[in-house]
C-alpha cells in the first residue's frame, strides 16, 4: 500500500524508534537520546513530540507546545493550498459546445489520460453562437 502522508501532529507515545534525535521547542538540537529519555523530557515540560524527519538516521523529533503544533499545521495547510504539488501540471482545454461527436470523444480520452497522470485539468466549454 502506498504510504499515506501523515497529518502533521504529535506522535504521543507511539514511537517505533529506540534512539531519537531530539530538537527542543526553541529549535535547538539536544542530540541523540533513547526514546525513554525523550518521553521523560516531553512529560516534564508538558510538550508534545513531533516527528520531523523520519528517514534521517536516527529519526528527528521536535518537542513542541500545542500552540506550536497548531501554528505549524496552519502554515502547512496554507502552503498546500497555495501550490499544486510538484509534478502536477494544469492542463487546459477549451472547445465549443458545437464540437463534432468524434472530436469530443478524442478530447475526452485525452482528459482521462491527464487525470490518470494526476494532472489538474481545466476544461472550458464555449457556447456556440
UniProtKB/TrEMBL annotation:
One of its GO terms (biological process) is mitochondrial translational initiation. The keyword Translocase does not apply. This is IF3M factor. GO terms for molecular function: ribosome binding; translation initiation factor activity. NCBIfam families: infC. The keyword Chaperone does not apply. Signal peptide: none annotated. Pfam families: IF3_N. InterPro entries: T_IF-3_C_sf (IPR036788), T_IF-3_N_sf (IPR036787), Translation_initiation_fac_3 (IPR001288), Translation_initiation_fac_3_N (IPR019814). It comes from the Eukaryota. GO terms for cellular component: mitochondrion. Residues 11-78 form the Translation initiation factor 3 N-terminal domain. Belongs to the IF-3 family. Keywords: Initiation factor, Protein biosynthesis. The gene is Mtif3.
Amino acid at each position: 500500500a502506498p504510504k499515506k502522508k501523515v497529518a502533521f501532529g504529535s506522535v504521543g507515545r507511539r514511537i517505533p524508534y529506540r534512539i531519537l534525535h531530539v530538537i527542543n521547542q526553541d529549535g535547538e538540537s539536544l542530540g541523540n537520546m533513547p526514546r525513554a529519555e525523550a518521553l521523560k523530557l516531553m512529560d516534564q515540560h508538558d510538550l508534545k513530540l513531533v516527528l520531523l524527519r523520519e528517514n534521517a538516521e536516527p529519526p528527528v523529533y521536535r518537542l513542541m507546545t500545542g500552540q506550536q503544533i497548531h501554528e505549524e499545521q496552519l502554515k502547512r495547510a496554507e502552503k498546500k493550498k497555495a501550490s499544486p504539488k510538484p509534478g502536477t501540471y494544469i492542463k487546459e482545454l477549451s472547445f465549443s459546445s458545437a464540437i463534432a461527436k468524434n472530436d469530443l470523444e478524442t478530447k475526452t480520452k485525452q482528459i482521462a489520460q491527464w487525470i490518470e497522470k494526476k494532472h489538474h485539468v481545466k476544461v472550458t466549454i464555449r457556447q456556440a453562437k
